[in-house]
Give the backbone structure.
Amino acid sequence: MFLGLGARAGTCRADLSAAVAAALRTAGLAPEAVTVLATLDRRAAEEPVRLLARELGWRLVGYPAAALGGRTVPGPSAAVLAAVGTPSVAEAAALRAAGVQSRLILPKQVFARVTVAIAIPRPGGDPTICEKHSESRT
């Protein structure tokens, strides 16, 4: 599974962790079901996001806004577009990482400073996390 994360700049690890835990509960998933945390490249560079991925044992993948802007999502946001240059971060990042014809099993869940979405690849699909973008192993 691929968890997409959107967050305001400087969001603390505790807020990130609480939002992710709540989203996983809503989806009925254990943290072990997720393998990738996908987000905006700027967020992937922030220490609280890196720490969260490392603590959960997930691969961290960061996409530039232009790479996320091309994904069709059910919940685009004009406010997010104005803030970071793409109408979606959480949903678009989850879908982008999960690959072509992936689908959301949890549309974006909005928390105070964090948005979370979860996607799965199509059966037999090949996730696209190896595209040219910022990627790090935690």
